[in-house]
TrEMBL record:
Gene3D superfamilies: Hypothetical protein af1432 (1.10.3210.10). One of its GO terms (molecular function) is phosphoric diester hydrolase activity. It holds the Pfam family HD_5. It comes from the Bacteria. The lineage of its organism: Bacteria, Pseudomonadati, Pseudomonadota, Gammaproteobacteria, Vibrionales. This is HD-GYP domain-containing protein. Residues 155-363 form the HD-GYP domain. InterPro entries: Cyclic_di-GMP/3'3'-cGAMP_PDE, HD/PDEase_dom, HD_GYP_dom.
Length: 371
């Protein structure tokens, strides 16, 4: 039964095993669902058991709309609904979809790390009053699951720390600010969550892209400083050197991953695809592999748009930031040639959130002090 604790399996594989194990003992259980919180206090599903069917909600608008979830966020205590049929929900559309998936009773448990709320674990059953007399049993299992989830979350953060430490040791300067990387991650998640609603990917994929999008330019740490920090227009020879950074980044990350025995192959593919292909163009005229259209991995198509948006909106030594209106026009004109049209649609539907992210994570432009 405890094979779901095997760390050689992916998190989703372990959650599948957990669900099937519990269902053998309690066939009334429909399954479990795990959500994560984005930068706008929305919850999105990163895992759900297959038995829920297509009606299970994948996205919950701001948790402020749900007194149940808002209270859980502040108290970090679990919550049980004994009978969904008589429960007055403030988010009626989601409530209806849960009922359509035959969820009659529900146990919700906060997921948090270092006292920071990061999501919710839902366990649902087909009959009413199921959890109240088994609360100790399911509390124990919920703790096990949340430990798995927070362990996965913290492993990703630790992996980031390892990569950034290696980069600091190999290259003491960084041409991009940390807030640039944070904004690219947030824009990537915005695009990904739109694609979830369109059925093009799932929340687990979006979560991985969010966590790893900031590694897209790691190969620049191996580019000579006189080229990397130049504010002049590149010569053809300099441009050829700069264009090597996706391949150099893949080599660097592969070496780090081998050294630290990082063996999550699904996430490994996402990381390396982002690094190698974020300069491909939708029309096939990008680099390094001149991939075209959907030949370009979706994660790379997402990060390409996110990175370009932030570059255009940001101050650089060689340019002033563009207005949001000019960026919008550029994206529209580049849709289908430079960029995946669906990714552009995602951003055009979320320009207000783009502006919010930009203001929430501003760059600090350091002025030179007099000698």
């Amino acid at each position: 039964m405890y094979s779901f604790l095997n760390t050689k399996r992916s998190l989703n594989e372990r959650l599948d095993l957990f669900t099937s194990s519990v269902q053998k003992i309690h066939p009334e259980i429909i399954g479990i669902a795990v959500t994560r919180m984005d930068d706008h206090d929305n919850l999105y599903s990163v895992y759900r058991s297959p038995d829920y069917g297509d009606n299970f909600p994948t996205f919950i608008a701001s948790i402020a709309q749900s007194p149940r979830l808002s209270k859980m966020r502040s108290s970090l205590e679990l919550n049980i609904i004994d009978n969904m049929l008589s429960h007055q929900s403030s988010v009626k559309k989601i409530h209806l979809r849960l009922l359509q998936s035959h969820c009659i009773s529900s146990m919700a448990c906060p997921i948090y790390t270092n006292d920071t709320f990061i999501g919710v674990l839902f366990i649902n059953a087909k009959i009413k009053d199921f959890f109240s007399d088994k609360v100790d049993y399911f509390t124990t299992f919920s703790i096990l699951i949340t430990l798995l989830i927070t362990d996965d979350f913290n492993n990703k953060k630790a992996f980031h720390s390892i990569v950034k430490t290696v980069l600091l040791l190999s290259h003491h300067k960084d041409p991009e600010t940390q807030n640039h990387l944070k904004r690219v991650a947030e824009y990537s998640r915005l695009i990904g969550l739109y694609l979830v609603k369109k059925g093009k990917c799932n929340g687990d994929f979006v979560d991985s892209v969010y966590h790893f999008s900031d590694m897209h330019d790691v190969g620049k740490s191996l580019i000579p400083e006189e080229i990397l920090y130049s504010t002049e227009i590149y010569t053809d020879e300099e441009r050829a050197v700069m264009n090597q950074h996706p391949e150099l980044g893949c080599q660097l990350l592969s070496n780090i991953l081998t050294t630290f025995k990082y063996d999550n192959h699904q996430e490994l593919n996402i990381i390396l695809n982002i690094i190698r292909h974020h300069h491909e163009r939708y029309d096939g005229n990008g680099y390094p592999d001149k991939l075209e259209g959907i030949e370009i991995p979706l994660e790379a198509r997402i990060v390409t748009v996110a990175d370009v948006i932030d570059a255009l909106l940001s101050h650089r030594p060689y340019k002033q930031p563009w207005s949001i209106e000019d960026v919008e026009l550029y994206l529209i004109n580049g849709s289908g040639t430079l960029f995946d049209p669906l990714c552009i649609d995602a951003i055009l539907h979320s320009l207000d959130k783009v502006t919010l992210i930009q203001s929430r994570y501003p760059d600090v432009i350091e002025e030179e002090l007099p000698v």
